[in-house]
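From the pipeline queue, job 12 of 40. The input is one protein chain; the requested action is below.

Action: predict structure.
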Amino acid sequence: MKKLAIALLAAALAAPSLAQEESNFKVTPPPISCLDFHKGNNQFTFTGIYMKLGQAEDATGDAPTGWGFNAEMTRGFGEGFGVMYHFMFLGMNMPMDAPNDDIPVRVIGLGPMVVVDLKKGEKRDIAGEIIEKKATVAAFTGLDLLGTFMSMDYASGGEISVSSSEICLPLGMAADFPLGPMVSLVPFGRFSWIANTVTYDYDIAGYSGGGTSDTSYTRFDYGMDIDLRLFRNAPEWKISVGTVLSQVQGMADGNLLIMASVKREWGKHYSSTMFGPVLH
């Protein structure tokens, strides 16, 4: 049983090392959901998440499943400058045949992100109405905190618990290239420095102990999203095609990932010549 505790620790430590692998280009949502900032403008994004992880062909039992959400608030504090805040919760259930039925895993993430427009593509008139959209290029940086908690109780008595805390410092760039009033391409690139601390404790059948392990690593990822404004009379609502395509790719890999996002802007007004009726 002591070996099982060490195995769980090794699994927890394996995740950071896997993340160091070179990232391939993916059609996926960017790490920032808003690029054009105006003073006093807000945007709120809520994403519901459900996932079911794929298994090997010879695997027995149920597949690990999880559910959660990510809430994000964006506010412009000046022309071309804004801050984003997010909070994420994810609960996972990892079934086991023995010594108990499953292992609950909880993940919590939060943090701010600062965005600066290096090239601003939205032009507004004196009334604050957006009358023109050209390419926007933005740089972003911030702080992301992630905590993972896992515990397992034994029917015969005893417990194993593993927790990890992660600090991520990202630095990246993103762009918005409008192909028309209803479609935009949003490519991005991000470099991240990550520090991870794993703590474990076990007390099973006379064996007890614990420890802490620290690791740090870097990661680079890049990709592209496609933003659609489906409703000409309500341009403040947007959807991400990258989210859908990411889910299709996940299904091809044997993983079911369902994410449904609702994104709405406040404080931006659109010209009837660009996006439909003026919104107030």
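Job complete. Helices lie at 2-18, 241-252.
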